[in-house]
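=== How it folds ===
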Amino acid sequence: MKKPIIIILLLIGLVGQTQNKKWTLKECVQYALENNISVKQSELDIEMAEVEKLTAKGNFIPSLNAGAGVSENTGLGFNPITNNAQTTTFLSASGSINVGYTLFDGLRNFRQLQRADISKLSSQYRLDKMKDDISLFVANGYLTVILNKANLEVLKSQNEVTKEQIQRTQELVDAGSLPRGDLLEIRATDASEQQQIINAENNIQISLISLAQLLLIKDYENFDIEDEGYNIVDDGVSGRDVSEIIAAAKETRNEIKIAEQNVELAEIDLKIAKGANWPTLTAFFGYNTRYANTTSFTQQIDPDNPTITQQIGTVEGTGQAVIGTFPNTFPVEVGADPFVDQLYQNDGIGYGLQLNIPILNGFNTKGNIQRSKINLENSKYQLEQAELDLESTVYQAYVDAKGALKSYEAAELALESQELAYEYAKERYNVGLTNAFDFSQSKLRYDNARIELNRAKYDYIFKLKVLELYFGIPATELKF
């Protein structure tokens, strides 16, 4: 009886642990990379590129084909063995094996293999870029949840102060030291803060649902994140010159690598198109055989009268008869030879070389070459544009990170000033030197300063990580 109870308690404990699990940023990123549909599609693109590479390798292997056929003929037909017309019903079969090998085709097979390698590498770069983008999306969603939670903590902590002020103000009003209007003002502040707390809780839930949807997690109710231990971690990238970051981005970013691979693909396509102008030389070898179950006739010597004598002509001038002796034969119907014997008797082989020289094909080859040249020039322009776009994007990320840092530092100074002002207003209010409205306004400015500091902090963290990503730090190695 004890064992079932223990098992049930263990199961309840496991369920509770699962429901109380809080996801770290690293776990969220890893889960997204493993389950995101776009990532899976990019992985399929790599598998497809591998199939193309296998096909390109197959072009270097001889082609081997075998064929066989069976037919039954009734009526007048040609015997496939004797090649004589006869009226009968017979079964015939044939088989063949053919081997072909391309000796030279303008190096197109070799170019196709090169193209398959480049295409696979390009697919890998696209996958890596997809993972970087998704990692940033997850990090942004994660930091949004943390920001909303931090704002909620600010609102709750300040509301506790407000409740204490309500109690103290009530005592002072009852003692006649403060007018009742001050108590009403503090209570109005409390009601406004309660509304803000509800909105903040809703923002947390909405941001958690958005993050869960990004991770393809459907259990929204039990999904939560680890909201502690995330601070500003700068590995020194923000202190580097923007030109250094741009140079590193051009060497490491997948956008540039993809554009470079597209240029290489266009160059290979042009070589493949030009290869169609070259002659094609192929070798072939074929083996075939046949069988038929038809009967045939053969001439057999009469054992009783093996020879016959016949006049075959006359001697010119004398008119003397010329006599010849011939075998005395008569036709005898015989059955078909055995199947295996016929396969050996009727087989044959063929082999040789075939040369195809392109002369005129309606300008198709010339058109393909011109299209490939245009595509090559276009891919070069795309590479140039990708470099310009990356340079602009990195510069913008650099400016954003610098601006976010200044905003964060300004928010810290503003919070220090507002905290001092709030403490001063609080002291004056406690001794009755200021009214509840002025105190509430000072407290509101202090609350907004704390919330603004949270926003500036996590905004700087995100923009700093974007800058580090452009510098070449992998998304999975970013530190928070």
Remarks:
- The chain has a mean pLDDT of 83.
